[in-house]
Design brief:
single chain; 407 residues; alpha+beta; Four Helix Bundle (Hemerythrin (Met), subunit A); Nonspecific Lipid-transfer Protein, Chain A; 3 domains; four-stranded mixed β-sheet; 8 strands; 11% strand; extended; disordered N terminus
Length: 407
């Protein structure tokens, strides 16, 4: 419809300007022919990377010739940097624990998780988060399990689903000690009919893997494992100190529940790293206070493992026999870094009384390196450890640390 002429006393209104306030490109003029006034009006859009390719080229060409516009462009770019910091989009791996800790300070839980159960609760949750982030096809990715059998390194290949079945089977030892159902009885009905009975982690795992149970070969294996873990933490929380000292039978040795849950926390962490390596996924170490408890458990188990290696002929006899409670030789184990500390390991008898002055050798390792040694992932003689003093004592402790590992 043709526009009517303005009536007497009215003036034609100005042409509508762009909403952004920027000057429109003159009609018939390309970006390469823009004058100083138009190029200056484009500096804000250029700083925000909102120009077209032609406009960007024209502005940047102009900046090499006009000092005033170059200074203005620099100020605008700096301002944009303040408005849009280039932070990583990845969440801080400690965010979950920080949020939970803040919540607990504001409102304490009615039934708190015991400190000795907190590492397992945290590591099981971290592994569960990894499993939730996986594609279904990745559950069948090959995973290599590694450990040290006391003489040499051993390996066994399985899948991600097989690793979770392994954790479910061995966690069942703690579950039964807490009065919960044994998951192995549900997977292998004939075992329950025969009365079941205690068996070690390796045997239980093999029974699970050999069971005709589809749920253990699919992503739904996560459900039973996670439900059992929740039940264990919940039961331990309600029982409190009454559950801490209950015996957990590992076949040829026994641990109290408080230590068994630390052992399970350590396994969750190490097998989570195995899974993460298999699917090329980043994974971080536990919180320092939780890692310290795991390192402390390993240090407390070392004297008994040294004695076991000597009984089985895997290590030489001690230089002298020491009766229980009598002073004996010691090794100063220094674990450095987050979660580390100092321990004095009896060398002649698990029950020997030792003091810092009794140390005949000193070994210093990074906390992560020590945990990798305890997991059987690092050969004892290739461990990056600082060593001083009796070489035989150092060797006994390094080999004993690796011998704490199992499938």
């Amino acid at each position: 419809m043709p526009q009517e002429k303005a009536t007497h006393g009215e003036q034609a209104g100005p042409e509508e300007q762009p909403a952004s306030g920027e000057q429109p490109l003159p009609e018939g003029l390309s970006a390469g022919q823009l004058d100083h006034r138009v190029l200056k009006s484009l500096l804000g859009a250029w700083a925000l990377a909102a120009c077209s390719a032609e406009e960007t080229a024209a502005v940047e060409g102009h900046l090499s010739e006009c000092g005033a516009c170059a200074d203005e462009a620099l100020r605008l770019r700096d301002a944009v940097g303040l408005l849009h910091p280039e932070d990583s989009l990845d969440l801080d791996p400690m965010l979950r624990s920080q949020v939970l800790e803040g919540c607990m300070v504001r409102r304490a839980p009615r039934v708190p998780v015991p400190e000795w159960a907190a590492p397992y609760d945290a590591e099981a949750s971290r592994l569960d988060a990894l499993l939730r982030d996986m594609a279904d096809a990745e559950w069948f990715a090959p995973v290599l399990l590694r450990w040290f059998d006391g003489r040499q390194h051993a390996e066994r290949e399985t899948t991600v689903a097989g690793v979770i079945a392994h954790l479910l089977a061995v966690d069942g030892l703690v579950a039964t000690a807490l009065g919960l159902p044994d998951p192995l009885d549900a997977a292998v009905p004939e075992r329950a009919a025969q009365g079941g009975g205690p068996s070690g982690p390796a045997r239980r795992t093999e029974e699970f893997w050999n069971a005709d149970c589809d749920v253990l070969r699919t992503p739904s294996a996560r459900g039973p494992w996670r439900e059992q873990g929740h039940a264990m933490v919940r039961t331990a929380s309600f029982a409190g100190s009454g559950a801490a000292g209950l015996d957990v039978l590992y076949g040829d040795f026994t641990l109290p529940v408080r230590d068994a849950l630390l052992d399970r926390a350590f396994e969750c962490w190490m097998h989570a790293e195995d899974i993460a390596d298999a699917i090329h996924y980043p994974y971080t170490a536990p919180q320092g206070k939780h890692m310290h408890r795991m390192v402390d458990l390993a240090a407390r188990l070392l004297p008994g493992t040294i004695a076991w290696r000597r009984r089985t002929g895997l290590a030489g006899a001690p230089q002298r026999l020491t009766t229980a409670g009598a002073p004996g030789r010691a090794l100063h184990l220094e674990v450095e870094g987050d979660g580390g500390g100092d321990w004095y390991i009896p060398l002649d008898s698990p029950a020997a009384s030792v003091r810092p002055d009794d140390a005949v050798a000193h070994v210093a390792l990074d906390s992560y390196e020590f945990c990798q040694l305890v997991a059987g992932h690092v050969p004892p003689l290739e461990t990056a450890a600082g060593q001083d003093g009796d070489p035989e004592a150092v060797r006994d402790v390094l080999f004993a640390a690796a011998s704490l590992s199992r499938m």
